[in-house]
UniProtKB/TrEMBL annotation:
The keyword Chaperone applies. Pfam families: Ric8. It comes from the Eukaryota. Belongs to the synembryn family. PANTHER family: SYNEMBRYN (PTHR12425:SF5). This is Uncharacterized protein. Keywords: Chaperone, Guanine-nucleotide releasing factor. The keyword Chaperone applies. InterPro entries: ARM-type_fold, Gua_nucleotide_exch_fac_Ric8. It comes from Discina gigas.
Length: 487
């Protein structure tokens, strides 16, 4: 590369990096006026600047208004593709390393030219231009609405996503996507996400990309772990888009579960990889869970039923306390009790609650009161006493653990080692306790109802063994009207 530099741009013995950077920019600026460099010389000069610009130390002239203008002119006004792309690489480095250069770029009016140039079908151009515009969405006064309305930025980005979707329809294990294509796709998706995040009222510009994003998501081979580029960017891009506006495309008649099934597959793989490392899943997993909640909200009823079957515990799992199997549903339940993943805990609890038709009673039945209590307490939701009784359409279910009563190990009779006189004395103590304290508050009464429910279940199991036949003293006290609510 040094041999291709023009004489005026070659480094001098003992010359500092700072002075050489300035001379390189002067050579390029002069060339914009006189066109005195050959194309190879111009490219070599820009390549040297790119190498210097990777380290901001001693590269100050690049980050000035004059330096940025010189690079922008080469990047957006040059008719030579190689020259233009080399200048854009220098710009992308500058915008990444020095925040002040982003506003300079916008003030010079090159954001509009970047939007116009995005109609190119080159992956290299797409990657560089999308990254440059993505960086200018931070810490600048860029007018994104103007780029969308007057410079067709939404249309060019939609066309880019469409091109990627068509390419993925031809991709096989023997013919994977090109690395540059993957990088260009990631930058385009990141730009779409930022635009819809900062200007949510204009998200409709990208509705046309929703089916194509899902198409790429379904056809792309999943990496391991799955929540990495570009899969995570595909998911993020969908978050701010109006899913409900494309119901027919998202839930196609021929296979309405297709896209939901893919998202659940990603969730299954991601939680399996992160098992025991919940804190690592806490950031990457939230967008996926949020998207699943949006999908449930927009989905027709038969798709919602499919989501329930895949994400809620099955009847077969109730042979053990819920959360003890290796299924996806069990992993999700365990996340709801994880202290290491507070964001994931909240979103999974909300998803499972919504899959339970937002009914506290159904939620308790589906996941067990032990897993449901956190969300119910946080939202101040009350559960009727009947929901805390052993219930089930086919078998009686422990409402606390979700396990069927028939599958629970029989508990040793706690009264088995006591004489009849000792049993009577213990019962008398309970009655005296109730008489002494008189009327109880509503909260204590509800607590005693839970105790009563648990005791009733234990009595149910003990009666089945034939060991003992007793009537719960709490039940008897309630039936006799010895509890009343206080304001």
């Amino acid at each position: 590369m040094e041999s291709q530099l023009p004489v005026s741009a070659k480094s001098k013995p003992g010359e500092s990096k700072l002075h050489h950077v300035q001379r390189l920019l002067d050579v390029l600026a002069q060339d914009l006026v006189n066109q005195n460099l050959t194309t190879p010389q111009r490219i070599a000069t820009l390549e040297q600047l790119k190498i210097y610009g990777r380290d901001p130390s001693g590269s100050d002239p690049i980050f000035t208004k004059e330096g940025m203008e010189t690079l922008c002119s080469n990047g957006f006004n040059s008719v030579d593709t190689a020259t233009s792309q080399e200048a854009l690489r220098c710009l992308a480095n500058a915008l990444l390393l020095e925040q002040e250069t982003r506003q300079i770029f916008v003030d010079l009016g090159f954001a509009e030219k970047a939007a116009d140039k995005l109609k190119s079908d080159s992956h290299d151009d797409e990657f560089l231009l999308a990254r440059i515009l993505f960086l200018t969405t931070y810490s600048t006064a860029i007018d994104l609405e103007k780029l969308l309305e007057e410079h067709n930025l939404g249309e060019w980005l939609n066309q880019a996503i469409s091109r990627h979707a068509k390419q993925y329809s031809r991709i096989t294990e023997d013919c994977p996507p090109s690395p540059m294509g993957e990088m260009a796709l990631s930058e385009t998706l990141k730009l779409i996400f930022n635009i819809t995040h900062f200007v949510p009222s204009k998200s409709f510009h990208f509705s046309a990309s929703i089916p194509n994003i899902f198409k790429i998501l379904c056809r792309r081979q999943l990496p391991s772990p799955p929540l990495q580029a570009p899969v995570i960017y595909l998911i993020n891009a969908l978050l701010s888009l109006d899913i409900a506006s494309c119901v027919g495309d998202i839930f196609p008649f021929r296979d309405s579960n297709l896209n939901v099934a893919r998202l659940i597959e990603i969730l299954d793989l991601a939680t399996e990889v992160q098992e025991g490392k919940e804190e690592e899943f806490d950031d990457s997993g939230v967008p996926l869970l949020t998207l699943l909640r949006k999908m449930r909200e927009a989905a027709p009823e038969h798709v919602r039923e499919y989501m329930k079957r895949r994400l809620l515990p099955s009847e077969e799992e109730r042979d053990k306390p819920l959360g003890k199997s290796t299924s996806l549903a069990s992993r999700l339940l365990n996340f709801t009790a994880s202290a290491m993943a507070p964001n994931t805990r909240e979103h999974i609890s909300s998803l499972l609650f919504e899959l339970s038709d937002s009914s506290p009673e159904k939620y308790v039945h589906n996941v067990g009161y032990g897993f449901a209590s956190g969300l119910l307490m946080t939202r101040g939701l009350q559960v009727s006493p009947s929901a805390l009784a052993a219930s089930g359409t086919q078998k009686l279910v422990n409402p606390i653990t979700g396990q069927t009563l028939d599958s629970e190990e029989l508990v040793k009779d706690p009264l088995g080692d006591m004489t009849e006189e000792e049993k009577e004395r213990e019962a008398e103590k309970l009655f005296v306790l109730f008489e002494r304290h008189g009327p109880l508050s509503g909260s204590i009464r509800r607590l005693l109802r839970i105790v009563w429910t648990n005791a009733r279940m234990r009595g149910y199991r003990l009666k089945k063994t034939g060991v003992v036949d007793i009537k719960n003293p709490v039940q008897q006290a309630l039936e006799e009207g010895r509890f009343e609510d206080l304001d």
